[in-house]
């Protein structure tokens, strides 16, 4: 058994040498010709010491002459896209909100956004765009009440000043790709999911992050005398 293996490190965000801490292989018959094989390893990055777990499984002929890779799973998964700088802060303030105002709404937004990131990291684009559609609908309804159908909600969302005309068009595409995945068996690729996530995270940042920052500035800036 090799002492080290080259693997992607989620902390270093690069392929690094990792020390193998534990390794286990399994092999059992699948049918008369093939057998199912799997290997699990637990590693530690030689640079940052971040632990990783990798599971690989494949089918091979019983004489060992032919292999057909089936599956590979790594935890923590490789990030295809960096999370925004406000991501972790939003997670904290979603739970610990001032005076409890809006806590339920923010917690829901954070929970669903986290699940969408999980779908991206685990190559589940259909689940991701369905989640994006659900999250966009929740944000709109929480601000303007439900106008039904989606296009009316989006129009009213713009009328009340939450988004611009350009944002309305962009969010319309997010809704459409979600509709297509649910109703028309469309399977978006990772690039499309990332683009839709960019658009929705821009909305979240505008509505929840910038508003809080503006309130903080207003509290700290001295007021004019006599006002």
Please count the helical segments.
6
User: Roughly how many Å apart are the termini?
Assistant: 75 Å
Q: Look at the structure and give the CATH class of the largest domain.
A: Mainly Alpha
Mean pLDDT: 83
Our Rg estimate from Cα atoms comes to: 23 Å
- Overall structural domain count: 2
> What percent of residues adopt helix (DSSP H or I)?
40-55%
Strand segment tally: 5
Order of helices and strands: EEEEEHHHHHH
Q: Which class of secondary structure composition applies to the elements?
A: alpha+beta
- Largest pleated sheet: 5 strands, antiparallel
CATH topology of the largest domain: Four Helix Bundle (Hemerythrin (Met), subunit A)
How would you describe this protein?
There is one protein chain. The protein has 227 residues and is of the alpha+beta class. The protein folds into 2 domains: 4-75, no CATH class; 87-220, Four Helix Bundle (Hemerythrin (Met), subunit A) (Up-down Bundle). Helices cover 48% and strands 24% of the residues. It has helices at residues 87-95, 103-121, 125-144, 150-159, 165-183, 190-220, and strands at 4-9, 14-29, 34-45, 51-61, 67-75. Strands 1-2-3-4-5 form a 5-stranded antiparallel beta sheet, with no helix packed on it. The longest helix is centred in the last third of the chain and has 31 residues, at 190-220.
């Amino acid at each position: 058994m090799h002492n080290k293996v080259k693997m992607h490190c989620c902390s270093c965000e690069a392929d690094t040498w990792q020390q193998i801490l534990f390794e286990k292989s399994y092999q059992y018959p699948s049918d008369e010709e093939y057998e199912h094989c799997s290997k699990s390893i637990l590693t530690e990055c030689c640079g940052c010491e971040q632990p990783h777990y990798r599971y690989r499984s494949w089918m091979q002929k019983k004489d060992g002459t032919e292999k057909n890779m089936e599956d590979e799973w790594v935890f923590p998964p490789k990030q295809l896209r960096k999370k925004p700088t406000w991501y972790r802060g939003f997670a904290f303030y979603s739970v610990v909100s001032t005076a409890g105002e809006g806590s339920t709404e923010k917690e829901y937004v954070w929970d669903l956004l986290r699940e969408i990131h999980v779908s991206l990291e685990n190559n589940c684009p259909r689940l991701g765009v369905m989640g994006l559609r659900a999250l966009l609908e929740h944000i709109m309804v929480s601000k303007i009440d439900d106008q039904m159908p989606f296009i009316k909600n989006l129009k009213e969302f713009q009328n009340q000043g939450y988004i611009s005309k350009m944002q309305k068009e962009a969010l319309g595409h997010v809704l459409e790709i979600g509709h297509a995945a649910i109703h028309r068996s469309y399977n978006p690729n990772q690039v499309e999911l990332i683009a839709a996530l960019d658009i929705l995270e821009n909305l979240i940042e505008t509505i929840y992050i910038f508003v809080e920052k503006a309130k903080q500035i207003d509290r700290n800036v001295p007021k004019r005398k006599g006002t």
